[in-house]
């Protein structure tokens, strides 16, 4: 049994350098063929777990606690500063209905899996984490895991299950518009890639580095975190500070949408902090404990995503929604804005890129509340 790691837990600067470089490796991995198929998050989780379980990195150290306690909350405002909910309502149309159907399907799947599978003492927390994941995406998984103090080994098993089940579902969504059954069931309205090119303005562009913008965004995020934590503790709800931080951010984002929309690089900084979180849970994870729960957690994720798919496609057919709009709404709900926008652009539906991004950000905004509330309710 390994009693002392090669990098000691009190070598703070060395640990920070490794954590940051591993997070950077995740972004690099996202640009490779392997990373695009299994995600950079999965790769940095695997590498960080390997380094800690073979004795290179310690499983507990002060930098990990700082990431959990300070950097994850700080990332929430940075990811949500552009969450103008009025745009979601006005620009997404029937896709918002489909999104809600998907969220309901996710919740039904969570409850079905919770009451039928032997999830043990971690059941309520897993229910909260996976409801947030399949309503908002992996960033919400990170936020809710931190908020409810999910065991790192269980968190890694959850991320692994999400990667396997989630990637399979995204592959299924990419094929749906071409499937004869779905084309018969729905009235499809795909357009050529040459149309609606104006909608490409929301496609991903390299962020412009503006230090004034970055400084303001990070400073504002610190202020929001301070207010959210203080308010939560004042009300005797200190463990729910993530919810207060999310609520304050949404209030500010919707009161001052125009100036915040001009900020450059805020989302990218928030994303980097979330990648640091995934590194931290990877190095904190016990592989033996993770494997012990991996199968049942994967089955839990499968039940949730099947219920999500059945409900969103069934209910959306009742509302006579467009097939491809439902596909993009499901993608935004289950995976977040990036992959939803990429699928829309890749299939020539540039008119749906902006709604895909808006729905994904809307998922970011609401999933934390759903996840924490569900975990609290089931654990009561």
Describe the structure.
The protein has helices at residues 12-29, 33-38, 40-53, 62-80, 85-92, 94-116, 123-133, 138-147, 152-175, 180-185, 211-234, 241-255, 257-261, 266-284, 287-318, 323-335, 337-346, 353-379. The protein is an all-alpha fold and 380 residues long. The chain has one domain (59-379). Helix 5 crosses helix 18 (353-379) and helix 6 (94-116) packs across helix 15. The protein is globular. The two termini are 37 Å apart.
Could you tell me the mean pLDDT? 84
Biggest sheet features: none
**Roughly what fraction of the amino acids lie in strands?**
under 5%
What would you report as the Rg, rounded to the nearest angstrom? 20 Å
| Total count of helical runs of at least 4 residues | 18
What is the CA-CA span between the terminal residues? Answer: 37 Å
Number of DSSP strands? Answer: 0
Question: What percent of residues adopt helix (DSSP H or I)?
Answer: over 70%
What's a quick, concise take on this entry?
This protein has 380 residues and is mostly helical. It is 75% helix and 0% strand. Mean pLDDT is 84; it is low at 189-204.
Key traits:
globular, 75% helix, mainly alpha, 380 residues, single chain
What topology does this entry show?
Layout: H1 12-29, H2 33-38, H3 40-53, H4 62-80, H5 85-92, H6 94-116, H7 123-133, H8 138-147, H9 152-175, H10 180-185, H11 211-234, H12 241-255, H13 257-261, H14 266-284, H15 287-318, H16 323-335, H17 337-346, H18 353-379
